[in-house]
Specification:
Strand content: 35-45%
Order of helices and strands: HEEEEEEHEEEEE
Number of helices: 2
Shape: globular
Length: 124
């Protein structure tokens, strides 16, 4: 079972390009500059690797049933219609977590301490 399905929600605060975007409980935060994730599932419909922006998605799914609904919408190409997903894009993204969480970066896992996380894209 994927780690977010088993994990607890964690208080998450996200700022995108200097503006508060998300403040609440989240089970998964996903960044990408391409639309498709593992398994060929389309996560970010408008992602482009050459536009200087990073896509960000937050899931508030809590438990197997919520995740099944979320992944079903993603597999059907309707990610943004999920009641458990919020998506945006930006150049400078700051993520603050209230508790440590394991994260994956291009296939390798690491631990994110509380309050850490920042992402950015080069200026175009």
């Amino acid at each position: 079972m994927p780690r977010p399905v088993r994990g607890e929600l964690v208080r998450t605060r996200i700022t995108v390009d200097g503006a508060d975007w998300f403040d609440g409980e989240a089970s998964c935060v996903l960044f990408g500059n391409v639309g498709t994730i593992t398994g060929g599932i389309r996560a970010f419909d408008d992602a482009r690797p050459d536009d200087g922006c990073l896509e960000i998605g937050v899931s508030t799914a809590d438990g197997a049933v919520d995740w099944a609904r979320t992944l079903g919408r993603m597999a059907a190409g309707r990610t943004e219609e999920s009641p458990f997903v919020r998506i945006t894009r930006g150049r400078k993204i700051k993520v603050r977590l209230a508790a440590p969480r394991t994260y994956e970066l291009d296939g390798g896992a690491a631990e994110a301490p509380p309050g850490s996380g920042c992402g950015w894209c080069p200026a175009r």
